[in-house]
């Protein structure tokens, strides 16, 4: 089972753009391009999983690498702060998590949000 | 009449805000350091993809990840010393995290030897990490090129 890469890319891109709340053409182009790149990367990770070339834990780490890179790309624009870039990428991935995890058969995006949630809980209790 | 300290208290935060908001001039050194990370990553991951066991293991390549991290740290230092915008400081942090997680994914792959690749990382996974590091470092270099640096 696979997912529609173009549709997922578009969903990630538009969600990131909406989260960033910028009407700059440069930001729009970059957010949409990053959405497409993330979708392609997620499809590749899902394919590697399906072919049993990697396992679920490796997949989750590879997804984190992609998330980090997208944050770097978005943060490099002066218009976007770290919090906004980080939040936008997480929201973009969250909106497609159900589709991507179901298609992969293994939760490759789920662990990302579990880790973020654990971190938030840890910070709240300290 | 205001005392100097009172003036500083009043205008200090305004000056600080102005400094943060002013566009930073392009810094060719940032371009050079960011491109060095991109080039080093291209060479490192390219060679890694062609290696067989035991040369492909994480242990055998840990020094390559160290070199990449050193280059990224030098980039962050240049940016943090005031030659880049606050946004760029954060972007360089994200680049460092990209490298840390790429390193961790290789360590994880090498720890699992019951798959078809043994201690090696799957070629597709190497390609994904290479592309991620390249696009993160290229984005930082591009901000300076846009600002006028060559």
Give the key terms.
heterodimer, A: 126 residues, mainly alpha, 5 helices, 0% strand, globular, B: 150 residues
Estimated radius of gyration of chain B: 20 Å
Question: N-to-C SSE series of chain A?
Answer: HHHHH
Rounded mean pLDDT score of chain B:
85
Structural class of chain A: mainly alpha
Which of globular, elongated, flat, extended, rod-shaped describes the shape of chain A?
Answer: globular
Oligomer: heterodimer
Strand content of chain A: under 5%
Would you write up a description of this structure?
The complex is a heterodimer of chains A (126) and B (150). Chain A has helices at 5-20, 25-50, 56-75, 82-104, 110-125. Chain A has 126 residues and is mostly helical. The model of chain B is unreliable at 13-22 (pLDDT under 50). In chain B, α2 (28-49) runs antiparallel to α3, α2 runs antiparallel to α5 and α4 runs antiparallel to α5. The interface between A and B is medium-sized, with 31 and 39 residues.
Layout: helices, strands, pairs:
The complex is a heterodimer of chains A (126) and B (150).
Chain A: H1 5-20, H2 25-50, H3 56-75, H4 82-104, H5 110-125
Chain B: H1 4-21, H2 28-49, H3 58-83, H4 86-111, H5 123-146
Helix pairs in contact in B: 2-3, 2-5, 3-4, 4-5
Quick take:
The complex is a heterodimer of chains A (126) and B (150). Chain A is mainly α and 126 residues long.
């Amino acid at each position: 089972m696979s997912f529609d890469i173009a549709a997922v890319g578009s969903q990630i891109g538009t969600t990131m753009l909406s989260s960033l709340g910028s009407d700059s053409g440069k930001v729009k182009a970059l957010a949409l391009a990053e959405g497409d790149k993330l979708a392609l990367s997620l499809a590749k990770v899902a394919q590697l999983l399906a072919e049993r070339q990697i396992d679920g834990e490796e997949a989750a780490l590879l997804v984190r690498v992609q998330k980090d890179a997208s944050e770097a790309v978005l943060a490099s624009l002066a218009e976007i702060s770290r919090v906004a870039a980080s939040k936008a990428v997480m929201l973009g991935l969250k909106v497609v998590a159900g589709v991507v995890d179901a298609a992969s058969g293994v939760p490759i995006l789920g662990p990302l949000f579990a880790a973020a949630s654990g971190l938030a809980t840890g910070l709240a209790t300290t | 009449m205001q005392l100097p300290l009172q003036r500083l208290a009043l205008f200090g935060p305004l000056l600080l805000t102005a400094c943060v908001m002013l566009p930073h001039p392009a810094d060719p050194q940032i371009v050079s350091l960011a491109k060095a990370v991109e080039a080093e990553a291209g060479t490192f991951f390219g060679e890694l993809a062609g290696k067989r066991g035991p040369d492909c293991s994480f242990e055998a390549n840990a020094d390559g990840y160290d070199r990449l991290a050193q280059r990224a740290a030098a980039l962050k230092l240049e940016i943090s010393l005031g030659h880049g915008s606050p946004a760029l400081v954060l972007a360089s942090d994200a680049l460092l995290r990209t490298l840390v997680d790429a390193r961790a994914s290789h360590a994880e792959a090498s720890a699992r030897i019951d798959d078809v690749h043994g201690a090696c990382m799957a070629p597709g996974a190497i390609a994904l990490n290479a592309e991620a590091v390249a696009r993160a470092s290229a984005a930082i270099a591009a901000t300076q090129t846009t600002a006028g640096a060559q």
